[in-house]
Specification:
Chain lengths: 660, 660
């Protein structure tokens, strides 16, 4: 494209931005104004994408990590011809519009991920770049290339200050993700004022230390940016950080370069002044330069042709490689669910003790052998989380076909990378750490839930029963805290068999799933409900029926390791109780009243047992006295000793049952 | 000390470690064995400390950021003469011992902070180094130096991979914390294997980019380490990272240098082999080299003399500066609570709308003017969090007397730095961000609660009423998730007056407090309970009494912004309800039955209202139908429109009340 078109598009991004933000009287005009030229280049020249088919599998990905600059994205998506009419831009930040305050995945065509919580966009992009390399290794042949795209990102100072960015960038450098290209909008302004206040590190040197290529440039010199892009692409072994010196709010005569323009509307006067400065009538609202419109009209045809070209290659590849095509359909086309019923889960001898983390490891091996899209890893705890897939090799700088990722001790980046891999499509990622460290990855777990991306979180060592490592390693509040997240499915299986089913449930589900798993052995249980696998999908089922089937004197509802503890306690207390395993409170709560009252008939007292806080259990137990829980931090010692110290043994529960 | 003493102490650290870990059959011998010589130098030579008085205000601080190496600390504390008898080391990782799996603050003398969750120790140390500089600026005079100490840290690969470390280190470099000296135990081994698997960045270059001095060395060359320490101390404008090439599990003939020795006991055979290799009888248990004992006997006397010397200076300083002494007593001696009653909080006109974040800002100004120890800042949201203290200047590289910190967009490091400042003593820190980003700082918030350190968390924009920023910025589950943390006090004040009291409650409290504050204006309420300030300290009080005082037909319990919403709804519904403000659910729950039933008489239906998930409210409401809550993510739009979209307006609540 010529630089006149760049200028016309940039001008339009600025005018659309200031009017939309002014109309909402809310938003962040500074970033879109500062990066408008880069936006023109990305959407008009650099990126292989197709506004008419935003789902094209081989499109370049673009992530606006500094999501507050959402009008950057909306302006460009509109101009480029995505299904985002001007009417939507006029409804910026209004309920029901497709232009929410921060870009939201699934809400607006062309938005690849939800951003706003800083730093996560870059980590998502690292996940996408990993996914691209994995899929390229699986599908490309010497004759045909069907997966080959770049992942572009814009980050701001805020993203670079967040720890997640360091984690993700260090890993990206380690893995040599050469097709990841990050533009740093270096405008030297943060919300509190100049970045001199808190951010004076040498960003270029830091990124070189991570093993990146670092290229400095001027945000307003399109020719230079083109040269830098060529350099970025030329080095295929290093991710690239292009540091663009920029001016926040560029084009605003009186506010450019100041933090006043970061997160507030310019005000009518300054909007008018900004328009005047580019020769526009201040009364002209949501102005689009006709040259920008004309440019993108032509460009859309080129891009459609580009995709058609790719389609031809794809068809030739498909014809030559029917086996790969079938795998493509399964992985990229999402047909893997048809395979789930054929997965042969390991069998377990009843009564024998198996840690659910071990059962998870075995289930994972069985699943991985059937589903090539299942890939993932742990934050340096694979031997404890039982997550390695040794049969398929590690994903490394030199082995893009490997399926095990070594994330390092980087929980938050790991989870956000998992989101990025799932968002990319073609993969069914899992990530793993200790349950207690779910706190570290919680910001990304929330986005998994908000976006409903199918990432499996393997969180082991799920209670104080971890023992000796002590309070810092013993989750108490974590399961409750995760259940509080809307749309997050938390499964806490009671034994090895439930663990296998939990894995299948996770793969059947189109959103994120947490598997909370034990460090310690648990007996494999006889289950009263012959249809327990089906029932488990409704959240809860009867493990042990009372003698008087329809009318137990007491019901004990437990999760995970507390199901076997409850069985023991019921026997010790000698009461005629029904024992229910409730691996998913959310799923049970979502059942109809008939199912719920079949399991928990009105009037029968319910005791709940879970090795964590009571919070959330009142709804079932009715009274706090009937919740067997822990309301304090743990202790360091062997698990059994800690249980005694906390008053959380089968004998303690039996004593409680006797009082009912 | 001579190098023979170093060797004797190092030998003893190794023998104590392997026996303690073997006895527990659990623990991490690799790190203490690898760093034993450095430990000898730190506790025997480098550090100004006094084992007989671990609370000496001017001691050097030492933080074992890689807390799993706890036997490093316990061995050295024992050898140096802290009150940690050998018997305790023999009870390593047992319930009730003073030697838990990870070092725990308040549990073992000489342990400065709880570590284990990686990276946080280094960030705590940054907080301590900031505190030292702040107090030095306040108290030292040209004639006398009463505050002057170093902060030492050991980190491992895991710490350096965690994002929090990047955040804290970047800030430490920015602030020029020259008295922070970090030793990196570079043993090239992580749990999954070699650090080559996931961590190949150039750590030295990265730290230089942060503005640190970086010094490479050999972990087993005491003379070199001494030279490096001198260099580290000489540069008073840069924190120092000393990178020590080391061998994990050093001394174990067959397991040294391998990840087998990271986190498991050596096994009896290897313990024996290790002892033999240093010329010991394998049957000799918990061996301590007599030379180590002799050395520390003398050293203790020297250190006691050192403290006495300091005491002399202190007394001279105190005599010459009675004003400063009074301030010292208040800040360092913890007597600031006496001042709380004299704080003149701002007054508010009833009915007028004030955002509680604004009221918090005003309360903070009043408090800061009376309590010089109150310092803190925001993660780049000061204008939104209302946390700046402009009257007292910024704490910067060149102004150590400033009281406002600019943390940058580094929430997790901010919170851990807050913990470090509070642990150091002498300061009453606050930290701030949006409530929704409490997820980012949650790992440190948990440690605030576990350690019970008095940090105030100012978390504004506390519900979907933030409006246009949309779901990524609208907390839904966060208040519930924070209430789930044992020992964390969460206060959600209903108006400007309650906000002022909440601040006082936070300062009266010796543990952490969260203040959940609104973005939007709330009316200042008439309060039925004339003694509401007292009652608020019990968690809840009557804002509006029913006509039939003793027997309302209905009670509405609300928090924060929902109190005024409830008042409106009650009026709209025309029911004779009592309305209760419950700024602290935890405090209310801790009251005796009499207080609780006075507020909530048995048999009277209770409706609860809070702009977040229902989880946790069943205990009061009895039935899910009576919980006015939000069980989904929010929407982007003006707050009022979002309320309508979510069915969370006063009219919606009124409708619910009518059904009761």
């Amino acid at each position: 494209m010529d630089n006149k078109a760049v200028a016309a598009i940039a001008r339009s991004v600025r005018t659309l931005t200031i009017d939309a933000v002014q109309a909402a009287n809310s938003g962040h005009p500074g970033m879109p104004m500062g990066m408008a030229e880069l936006g023109a280049l990305l959407y008009g020249e650099f990126m292989n994408h197709n506004p008419v088919d935003p789902g094209w599998a081989n499109r370049d990905r673009f992530i606006l990590s500094c999501g507050h600059g959402s009008m950057f994205l909306y302006s460009l998506l509109h101009l480029a011809g995505y299904d985002l009419p001007l009417e939507e831009l006029k409804q910026f930040r209004q309920v029901g519009s497709r232009t929410p305050g921060h870009p939201e995945y699934g809400h607006t065509p062309g938005v690849e991920t939800t951003t706003g919580p800083l730093g996560q966009g870059l980590a998502n992009a690292v996940g996408m770049a990993i996914a691209e390399q994995m899929l390229a290794a699986r599908f490309n042949t010497p004759e045909h290339t069907v997966v080959d795209h770049h992942t572009y990102v814009i980050v701001g100072d805020g993203c670079l200050m967040e720890g997640i960015t360091s984690e993700a960038s260090s890993l990206a450098g380690h893995l040599g993700l050469g097709k990841l290209i990050v533009f740093y909008d270096s405008n030297r302004i943060s919300i509190e004022g100049s970045t001199e206040l808190a951010f004076t590190e040498d960003v270029a040197a830091r990124y070189r230390a991570y093993g990146w290529q670092v290229l400095p440039g001027d945000a307003y010199d399109p020719d230079q940016i083109r040269t830098l892009l060529a350099e970025a692409k030329a080095d295929q072994r290093k991710p690239t950080l292009v540091i663009l010196e920029s001016e926040i709010g560029r084009g605003s005569p009186n506010k450019a370069g100041s933090h006043a323009v970061h997160g507030a509307a310019l005000g009518d006067d300054e909007v008018a002044a900004t328009k005047k400065a580019i020769g526009l009538d201040p009364g002209e609202m949501f102005y689009i330069d006709p040259e920008a419109t004309a440019f993108f009209r032509t460009r859309r045809e080129e891009l459609t042709a580009l995709q058609a070209e790719w389609r031809k290659t794809f068809d030739a590849w498909a014809g030559a490689n029917p086996g790969l095509l079938a795998q493509w359909k399964e992985m990229v086309g999402g047909e893997y669910k048809d395979v789930l019923k054929d997965i042969g889960l390991p069998q377990y001898e009843k009564g024998k003790g198996v840690a659910t983390r071990q059962a998870s490891g075995k289930a994972l091996q069985a699943i991985a052998s059937m589903l090539p899209g299942v890939v993932g890893g742990s934050a340096d705890l694979a031997p404890s989380n039982n997550t390695a897939l040794p049969e398929y090799g590690d994903f490394t700088r030199d082995n893009r076909g490997g399926r095990t990722l070594h994330f390092g001790v980087r929980e938050l980046a790991m989870a956000a990378i998992g989101n990025g891999m799932a968002l990319h499509g073609g993969l069914r990622p899992f990530v793993a750490t200790f349950l207690v460290f779910s706190d570290y990855l919680r910001p990304a777990l929330r986005l998994s839930a908000l976006m409903q991306v199918p990432v499996v979180y393997i969180l082991t060592h799920d209670s104080f029963f971890v023992g000796e490592d002590g309070p810092t390693h013993q989750p108490i509040e974590h399961i409750a805290a995760m259940r509080a997240i809307p749309g997050l499915r938390v499964l806490r299986p009671a034994d090895a068999e439930e663990t296998g089913e939990a894995w299948l449930m996770a793969l059947e589900h189109d959103g994120p799933t947490v598997l909370a798993l034990t460090r310690q052995n648990l007996p494999t249980l006889e289950k009263a409900d012959g249809e327990w696998k089906k029932a488990m999908r409704r959240g809860a089922y009867v493990v042990k029926e009372s003698e008087t089937e329809g009318r137990p004197e007491l019901i004990v509802v437990a999760t995970g390791s507390e199901v076997s503890l409850a069985l023991e306690a019921v026997e010790a207390a000698g009461c005629d109780a029904r024992v229910i395993s409730m691996p998913s409170v959310e799923l049970f709560r979502a059942q109809d009243a008939a199912y719920r009252s079949a399991l928990l008939p009105e009037g029968v007292p319910v005791v709940t047992a879970e090795a964590g806080v009571a919070q959330g259990w009142d709804a079932l137990a009715g009274s706090g006295d009937r919740i067997f829980s822990i309301e304090r931090f743990g202790e360091s010692g062997p698990g059994g000793d800690v249980a005694k110290a906390l008053g959380f043994t089968a004998a303690d529960l039996a004593e409680l049952l006797r009082t009912i």
